[in-house]
Amino acid sequence: MERPQPDSMPQDLSEALKEATKEVHVQAENAEFMKNFQKGQVTRKGFKLVMASLYHIYVALEEEIERNKENAVYAPLYFPEELHRRAALERDMAFWYGPRWEDAIPYTQATRRYVRRLHEVGRKEPELLVAHAYTRYLGDLSGGQVLKKIAQKALDLPSSGEGVDFFTFPNVASATKFKQLYRSRMNTLEMTPEVRQRVIEEAKAAFLLNIQLFDELQELLGQDAEDQSPSQAPGLRRRVGSGARDAALTETPRGKPQPNLLSQAPLLRWVLTLSFVVATVAVGLYVM
Ligand code: HEM
Question: What family does the database annotate (predicted)?
């Protein structure tokens, strides 16, 4: 006989996941990158970065979904026509990065970490794939719809949907009804209490992978803004480990990666700042 669930733990997996991820959802909404996005403070550069990460993430997610589409631990959630995002993201990549986008798109550390976990789950623990599909697809069908409108306005994109194909689900007539169907399918998955607990933990981990990605992108964008304001004293700059700095992310106006000499030579920056201060004082004394 199955043990009764404690009061605090809803019976349905869909309810349990919603409940268990409430806190990390708030954390995701409050990540600086997302907060700025919601305020309409999203630049082309930031948007291109996050979309490229999503491209890599969905390629991995959908590869693992295809691998497991006939496995009972995932099969009831297989909705390629309605949900799969790879083709849409490929169109978005071509829009944002041009015809040679495959060679041009960045692939950040946090994105790689997320992709690695998706492959691990798909190959070794497919019973946890539901957690990743839930976290992404139900999120895209919910808050994602608001983000699409914000991006179109902030980036002055055509209302035809070019550049934001990712957010458009042409084969989902009603997001609300589809989410209901998806939840009911999640609730048909048979799993032991032990697996169910691991699924819940994996969903929280999936949210955290997203949050780490937003934080990484924000850091990269922040560094770029700092690189463009030489008036700031070098000591006041936030530093990150050299590994987090992906040279390919420092774009010139034409999109060509270019190393930034000043950002790579703190001593040189100090010397320049010091020379400027000495020169200013000398001129001041001379004028007096
Ligand atoms: C600015 C950021 C975000 C906003 C404004 C937002 C907003 C929303 C809203 C309004 C809902 C619908 C809640 C409901 O129907 O009860 C929702 C649901 C959801 N969101 Fe988000 N969200 C954001 C970020 C995220 C992120 C980063 C993820 C994960 C990657 C995510 C995953 C989800 C999931 C899985 C659901 C479905 C919850 C359920 O019904 O079980 N959201 N979100």
Answer: Belongs to the heme oxygenase family.
Q: What pLDDT digit, counting tens, does each position of 240-264 carry? A: 333 333 333 433 323 333 333 333 4
> Comparing C-alpha atoms, which of 182, 183, 189, 188 is closest to residue 14?
183
Which range is least confidently modeled, 93-102, 169-178, 213-222, 279-288? Answer: 279-288
pLDDT in tens, 129-141: 999 999 999 999 9
Which residue's CA is the nearest one to ligand 1's atom 6?
143
* Of 191, 258, 262, the residue nearest 232 (C-alpha): 262
- Known binding positions for heme b: 18, 25, 134, 183
- What DSSP string describes 45-61? HHHHHHHHHHHHHHHHH
Of ligand 1's atoms, which has the minimum distance to the CA of residue 37? Answer: 1
| Ligand 1 pocket, residues with Cβ under 6 angstroms | 17-18, 25, 28-29, 34, 38, 134-136, 138-139, 142-143, 146, 207, 210
| Predicted local distance difference test score (pLDDT) of residue 251 | 36
| Residue 143 and residue 150 in contact, taking contact as beta carbons nearer than 8 Å | no
Query: Do residues 104 and 249 make contact, with C-beta atoms less than 8 angstroms apart?
Result: no
What separation in angstroms does the CA of 158 have from each of 47, 99, 151, 259, 284? Answer: 15, 19, 11, 33, 54
Distance 77 CA to ligand 1 centre (A): 19
Residue 49 C-alpha to ligand 1 middle, in angstroms? 21
pTM value is 0.80
Q: How many CB atoms lie within 10 A of CB 217?
A: 24
Stated as kind and residue range, the H or E segment containing 218 is helix 193-227
Q: 13-20 and 193-227 are packed helices; what angle lies between their axes, rounded to 10 degrees?
A: 40
